[in-house]
Amino acid sequence: MRLSNEWFTAFSENETGHMITVCGRDELQEFVQSGKFKERVEITWKYEGDNKGMPLEEQAEFMEEVQETLRKAMEKDKLSILTSVYTGGGEKIWVYYTRTVRVFGERLNEVLSSFELLPISIYTEIDPDWEEYLDMYEMKEWAVD
């Protein structure tokens, strides 16, 4: 299975009317169909943003650094796949599908140990049919160029 780096961006809004930027990964059909990535991990980083609920520039750059460091570590041996990133409304959410939450957690702690303590929370769920991803993927038709 070849992991592409093709992404699309769409916009939505949360319950309070704040704009949410949705970045979704494309070309993951082989991973969805493989049946090997049955667990979903959502990492949420709450932040104080601007008046539109978006992170401030310096904060956004740091979040991007953490995101890339984490993505590279999780995807290097295809333990986990970053499938979507939601930003807005005072939080950033990274969604991964993984082979095993236990190993994901171990690697997460290892990778994040090089950073200061981050204000994140983690939620996991069994999602063998990739329901969250497929729901998010429907937004592709509203993607911006």
What's the structural blueprint in terms of helices and strands?
Layout: E1 7-13, E2 19-25, H1 29-34, E3 39-46, H2 57-75, E4 80-88, E5 91-98, H3 101-112, E6 120-126, H4 131-137
Antiparallel strand pairs: 1-2, 2-4, 3-5, 3-6, 4-5
Structure description:
With 145 residues, the chain is of the alpha+beta class. It has one domain (7-142): Alpha-Beta Plaits (2-Layer Sandwich). It is built from four helices and six strands, in the order E-E-H-E-H-E-E-H-E-H. The chain has a six-stranded antiparallel β-sheet, with helices on both faces. Strand 4 (80-88) and strand 5 (91-98) form a beta hairpin. Helix 2 packs across helix 3 (101-112). The longest helix has 19 residues, at 57-75.
What would you say about this model in short?
The chain has four helices and six strands; from the N terminus they run E-E-H-E-H-E-E-H-E-H. With 145 residues, it is an alpha+beta fold.
Descriptive terms for the model:
145 residues; Alpha-Beta Plaits; 6-stranded antiparallel β-sheet; 32% strand
N-to-C SSE series?
EEHEHEEHEH
Total helix count?
4
**Total domains:** 1
Tell me what portion of residues adopts beta-strand conformation: 25-35%
Radius of gyration: 15 Å
CATH architectural name = 2-Layer Sandwich
Q: Look at the structure and give the CATH class.
A: Alpha Beta
Q: Please, what is the average pLDDT? A: 95
CATH domain fold name: Alpha-Beta Plaits
What is the oligomeric state here? single chain
Give the spatial strand order of the biggest sheet: 1-2-4-5-3-6
The secondary-structure class comes to alpha+beta
